[in-house]
Amino acid sequence: MENSQLWAGVRFAAIMISGLLTLLLLLGLLLRWTGGYAPGWILRCTSCGHTGDASKAGIIRIGARSWGKRIVGHCSQCGGWALSLERRTNDTSSLDR
Asked: Residue 3: which domain range?
């Protein structure tokens, strides 16, 4: 392999990596400005049962495979520190706003 071909490959790889990093940076900024992206997910306090929209809390769930998980977070209602991230059911009448 010639030296010029090697450098052409290195340049191509550098351009691809730079583009990917730029895309990830823009995605991160967009999610920061919009507050989060978690369609169909809610946060529930394990102490008082208070619920809220996960997206509004800044949670990002893209391609999530789990049905729920525990996270450390602060409940705005009771001040508790344990929150449960759960899939939203069709009944949204119990969702606190």
From this structure: 1-34
